[in-house]
Amino acid sequence: MMIKFVLHRLLWGAITVWFIATATFFAMHAVPGDPLIQDKAMSPAVRAQLEARYGLDKPLSQQYFTFMGNMLSGDFGISFTQENRRVNDIIREHFPVSATLGIAAIAIALVGGVFAGSIAAHYRGQWPDKLVMFMVVAAISVPGFVIAGLAQLIIVRLNAAAESTVLPVAGWGGVNHVWVPALVLGLGTLAYLSRLSRAAMLEVLSSDYILAARARGISGISLFFRYQLRNALLPVVTELGPAVAAITTGGFVVELIFAIPGLGRYFVQAVQQLDYTVIMGTTVFYGAFLVVIVVLVDISYGLIDPRIRLSAGRS
Amino acid sequence: MTVVAIEHLQLALSGNQVLRDVSFSLAEGECRALVGESGSGKSLTAMCLLGLAPPNAVLNAEQFSVMEQPLPAQGHRDWRGWRGRRIAMIFQNPMTALSPTRTIGAQLSECFRLHRNMDRRQARAESAALLERLAIPRAEQRLSQYPFEFSGGMLQRVMIALAVACRPKLLIADEPTTALDVTVQAEVLALLRELQHEQGTSLLFISHDLGVVANIADTVSVMYAGETVESASVASLLCHPAHPYSEALQAAMPRLHSSEMTVAIPGSPPDMRGTIHGCAFAPRCKHRMAICEDSPPLLASPRGAGVRCWRWHPDYPERWRLQHD
Lengths: 315, 325
Hints:
The structure holds 2 protein chains of 2 kinds. By secondary structure, chain A is mainly alpha-helical. Chain A is 78% helix and 0% strand. Chain A is built from 13 helices and no strands. The longest helix of chain A has 36 residues, at 87-122. Chain B is α/β, with parallel strands linked by helices. Chain B contains 10 helices and 13 strands. The longest helix of chain B is centred in the middle third of the chain and has 18 residues, at 182-199. The relative contact order of chain B is 0.14. Classes of the chains: A mainly alpha, B alpha/beta.
């Protein structure tokens, strides 16, 4: 039954991806200009030759079907602006960088958010609660690029004070390159998740089953992990799908500021230069990626809440 | 052995005196019912016996002991040896008193592992045996099911299993049948009584249903506005209530073979946010006298009940009492 449920969700996911691809394709072609408009003037003969090479001389509907056909066979074509690089290669080379950053950001947001939320709920109305809630409001209201700039400034000061490179200001390479951009990228989500888990935790804390568990002599760590956290986690997991989307799109900006060679940079550049194949390739890829994440999140509900596991199986 | 001895228990929540004077005792193997309307302090008394009174509570008692040992302060670490091991509690609503995300088996074997130091396999076998004892069919399979897969009656049996798992000396049942339908109520009550006899447990049975109380309890303490106003045997309380409030409660019970209307008690219970002077029941009492402005002491009725009413004072004229009765 679980397999049927997953297949069902994946089928709808495929339809979603097709819709994204189609909408992007036509929207992209509706934008005035094309990828062959460059700084340098181009003779009509050269232009016609290039158009023929990329298939741009054919009617739009035919281009659409050609593109869809290639996409189904897993080929996104060749970039217009990146000296004949294949879009598949661009994704293969740069997505792992974005994914590493994203996973680190999600992990920081999830662990940090649930931790901060639990602390706030445990000390409800006291100073730790007020401190956490103040930081949450600050982190949600200050835009990511401001926080990124501030983080870099702090690193520069830190390195100057230590008279050595404690943390790199930008770039990509070792583990030390990941922490700060991942924290900056995950901070908004972290703040949001701490509010969510605080509310969920408060509800759990006032429930009968916590009182009953305490009356049975269960306390401390086992009460927290087995009774409180497990039950408070469900609303948090529900938000993970949107959180991944937020972190994916937030990644474009953070990658740019920290000079990280992720996929986001190609995505933004491609839109600016109307690099048709790269736009289509990255959009469809991100669309499919998010669809898979949402399905995974749906499956994970069932792992956390047995009631959902069963009703999903019955549907 | 006296299992529970409570004398002059007082509890204040943020300045409001919620329990004003709770006194009763419970002998080994005895079942005492604690009756009274909502807000009279029955459940709060039970929570104090588990050290689970709200964190801002201020507790005061002349005597507050279980098994002749004084209980630790509320919320203290020392409660570990008491909760679930020597004192256990059955909650009113079994649907909400079990964690929805863990299996019955996990929650039940946890008790055995925590209090009786069993390993995983032993605990599971013991859990299955206990569920079987409580007449839950297919116990072994049911252990790996979740609370939402059980009916209310079955869940209350599981709650009972959780409570009796470690053979506590004192079992507190807070309205254990209120959330169940009537046919299931009778089964659960019978089971509770059976277990109580089998294990020699003392039972503190909280209820507002005098019918259920008559069925299960040996003795009754009636609570009103945070005070035990009368403590007596079940027979004495139901046939010859000594306190005007007990009398009124008894008159408010619906009767099967009678066309008489049940008599509601006029007025409403006092607001616990203010200080109560004198007898708390006086404003609703049909026997009210001038002396009721002063708090009545605990007096003995001729039938052996402890009652907090001036009418049982030795100076109270006997003929007045007869006249009113």
